[in-house]
Amino acid sequence: MDISKVIELTEATLVCGGDQTGNEVIRGFSSDLMSDVLTLDTEGLLLITGLSNIQTIRTAEMADIHYILFVRDKKVTDEMVKLAVENNMVILETPFSLFKTSGILFSQGLNPVY
Amino acid sequence: MVIEQTYFVRGGDFSHAGDASSKVKKLLKQLDIDPKKIKSIVIALYEAEVNIVAHAWEGTIAVLLEKDRITMVLTDRGPGIPDIGQAMVEGYSTASSEVREMGFGAGMGLSNMKRNSDVLEISSQVGEGTIVKMVNYF
Fold first, then answer.
1. Is B46 in Cβ contact with A35 (below 8 Å)?
2. Is A32's CB within 8 Å of B25's CB?
């Protein structure tokens, strides 16, 4: 599923990484627990999370995750955007809940990790 | 080739937790090292760095990069770990609510470090601090 489809399905706003909306994500993982995210070894992963702070971006940097979708209108700070841009990430914000977002993307063909 | 770097880590400073790990990642990416190995190294280091920020007052990270391995020694001044065996049990945590709000503190850090390093040694003195040594071979 490409990023533009993720945006369309979740009515998301693109925060940064607009040059990568044609890129594909293969699997989704929904979590607010960063240690859990750090156990993953998956390429083309979309991280779906309600945890909006600088450590979310740091965790993605360490785990080579390039696509993050923040749920429930959690706003990304300037500091987070700066770090995300430095690491060539795509950041999205959706008004939908974690449950609804995950359900929509799963039903439209985004695979789970486990 | 031998590269030595030392980084300072301030306890409680969550906005900078991961700065040292990020610098080490950038350094490793400049070298001809398998990206999967780099990922393991920086995940182990990041978890250990977050532990200093979460639990200790201050600490240092000494990184020694040699031809076939990286050695990372994290030395902190802090409360120490009374029972290292118990701390290694997945799910056991003494983290504060502030740490949990940052997405950590679920008792997975030490097991993540073990999974991502070839050698993990922990020694600790209660009331003084903890030394974590990790080695990864390329």
1. no
2. no
* Domain that residue A62 falls in: 3-112
Strands A67-70, A90-93: pairing is parallel
Nearest CA in chain B to A63: B39
> For residue B12, what pLDDT band results from cuts at 50, 70 and 90?
very high
Query: Closest chain B residue to A61 measured between Cα atoms?
Result: B22
Chain B interface mutation, best of A34, A43, A65, A68, highest count of B Cβ atoms under 10 Å: A34
Q: What is the rounded distance in angstroms from the CA atom of residue A53 to the CA atom of residue B15?
A: 9
- Per residue in B88-119, pLDDT tens? 999 999 999 989 988 898 899 999 999 999 99
Comparing CB atoms, the residue among B103, B109, B112 nearest residue A51 is B103
Residue located via tokens 């702070």: A53
| Of B14, B17, B108, Cβ closest to residue A36 | B108
Question: Domain with A99 in it: what CATH number?
Answer: 3.40.1390.20
Asked if this assembly's ipTM is beyond 0.95, the reply is no
Dump pLDDT digits (tens) for B33-76: 999 999 999 999 999 999 999 999 999 999 999 999 999 999 99
Question: Could you tell me the pTM of the whole model?
Answer: 0.94
Q: How many domains does chain A have?
A: 1
* Domains of chain B from N-terminus onward: 3-137 (3.30.565.10)
Q: By three-state DSSP, how is residue A76 classified?
A: coil
- Residues of chain A in contact with residue B22, where contact means CB-CB under 8 angstroms, are 58, 61-62
Burial of A45 (C-beta count, 10 Å sphere; 0-12/13-18/19+): buried
Q: Using CA atoms, how far apart are residues A12 and B97, in angstroms rounded to an integer? A: 30
